[in-house]
Amino acid sequence: MEFFLILFVVLSVLFFVLFVFFYFLHKRNLKILKGISHIISDSEENIPIIKMIDVLKEMKANLETRYSEATKSRENMRIILQNVSDGILIVDSEGKVTINNSAVCEFLGIENCVLEGKKLVEIVENYDMLNFIDKNLKEFTNGSTEISIVYPQRRYLKCDAIPVILKENEHVLIVVIKDITSERELDNFRREFISNVSHELKTPLTSIHGYAETLLDDDFKDVETVKHFLEIIENESARMSRLINDLLDLQKLEEGKTKFEFQNIDLSKIVDYVSRIVKPMADSLGVELKISCNKEIYVYGDFDRLVQAVLNLTDNAIKYTAQKESGVKSVEVSCEIINENECQIRVKDTGIGIPSDALSRLFERFYRVDKARSRKVGGTGLGLSIVKMIVEAHNGQIKVSSELGKGSEFTIILPILSKVSPKNGDSIPA
Ligand SMILES: Nc1ncnc2c1ncn2[C@@H]1O[C@H](COP(=O)(O)OP(=O)(O)O)[C@@H](O)[C@H]1O
Ligand SMILES: [Mg+2]
Question: Does residue 307 sit in helix, strand or coil?
């Protein structure tokens, strides 16, 4: 009896303890659920557990949508940045890259373009660029500068620094890098061109002025001297007018204002025409002129312009061959088919030749191997630039090879008729 009493008491105590334990456990869970319900409902009102599961599911779906939208817009931003032709570099206050596009790497010659988190000093080699970013980062100011770099290629870069404060007071510097190489080169080219033209015009003008002044001071007694001075004036003014004509020609060709009258032309007709013009000059300078041109090689081109190109080459060949002190003096103009698509006109001389280091610059405006010699033969330094432009307008190429003291060979390669689509479409007759 006593045993049952003890068992009853023990069981009662155990039951009581379990009851208290489960009561508190339930209360705690209720508290947690109430807390969750508050968080998700944003109000004091309790959400029933069944409903809470639905709300949580909806929240999960919302979060997933937002996450994928955030990822998408980040990815889109990255694609947009990569397609911007200017370099964009964003640097944090510690000088570490947070964002960059591939243009930055292209401009600065950085091979591995994963720059995020890297310090600027580790990736940018150009001292001026580093200095510029560093200064604007420290002072946290707007800045602008122009930097010229030589590696991986010569470029002029315009850099703008823009300080920006992001959320949570995060300071970053946006650096926009613009490639202004072509503008700068054009500026340099213009400057050089103006200086060349002024110089070329000044020389004959000074000479005309000088001789005219001498003539005025003279009492015109010595007729021979007067005649000689007048001849010089005549020569110099003719050179000025040639120069101006060449300049106008070049300008028109460059601006596409030259009207090309494209038609079927037999190359031998061009060569015949040129040879008739230059023959008297070749004879008077003691240069033998040889012509060998197969008939019926047709090209689609402008007769006058092709004559101008071949005439320029032949004129050079004769004049620079005549400059040779001794030896064979001959110029050969030939034309032939070189393959099923192309033919060529070749002007070969046994003249003074051209040094190999000058060959690559020969077609530049005003470039002359020997200025004094070119002036002596009445050159303007523009002839070969004009030839090149004419040939290119015919979808052709011009080549040169030469050996100093032995002679030069200029070759115009043109597409054979029916395989060409002339560049100057506007002026092609129907
Ligand atoms: N056949 C040639 N033989 C030697 N030098 C040449 C020949 N053709 C051109 N040159 C060189 O190329 C330069 C440029 O030629 P060009 O443009 O026709 O100008 P230029 O008016 O001086 O003749 C010349 O000044 C000359 O030095
Ligand atoms: Mg010339």
Answer: helix
| C-alpha radius of gyration, the chain, whole number | 42
d(CA 296, CA 291): 15
pLDDT in tens, 52-78: 788 888 889 999 999 999 899 888 988
Q: Characterize the bridge pairing of strands 330-337 and 288-293.
A: parallel
Which DSSP string corresponds to 226-294? HHHHHHHHHHHHHHHHHHHHHHHHHHHHHTT-SPP-EEEEEHHHHHHHHHHHHHHHHHHHT-EEEEEE-
Q: Which atom of ligand 1 is nearest to the CA of 375?
A: 22
Tell whether omega for the bond before 422 is within 30 degrees of 0, i.e. cis: no
Q: Which amino acid is at 253?
A: L
Pocket test for ligand 1, best of 354, 360, 398 (most atoms within 8 A of CB): 354
What three-state secondary structure class fits 362? coil
Ligand 1 neighbourhood includes 407 CB (under 6 angstroms): no
HEC profile of 165-206: ECHHHCEEEEEEEEECHHHHHHHHHHHHHHHHHHHHHHHHHH
Per DSSP, the residues of 381-393 read: S-HHHHHHHHHHH
Nearest to 204 by CA among 161, 236, 175, 159: 236
What digits encode the pLDDT tens for the residues 217-269? 877 777 888 888 999 999 999 989 989 999 998 888 888 888 889 999 999 99
Token pair recorded at residue 262: 């494209």
Between the CA of 381 and the centroid of ligand 1 the distance, in Å, is: 7
- The ligand 1 atom at the shortest distance from the C-alpha of residue 370 is 27
Judged by its nearest atom, the ligand closest to the C-alpha of residue 323 is: 1
Per-residue pLDDT tens digits for 127-153: 999 999 999 999 999 999 999 999 888
Separation of alpha carbons 89 and 103, rounded Å: 9
SS3 state of residue 16: helix
Q: Which amino acid, residue 424? A: N
343: left (phi over 0), alpha (psi -120 to 50) or beta: beta
Flag whether the pTM goes above 0.70.
no
- Take atom 27 of ligand 1 and give the residue whose Cα is closest: 369
Query: What secondary structure does DSSP assign to 366-417, as a single string?
Result: T--S-HHHHHHTT--S-HHHHHHHHHHHTT-EEEEEEETTTEEEEEEEEEPT
What does the chain come to in residues? Answer: 430
Neighbour count for residue 400 (Cβ, 10 Å) = 17
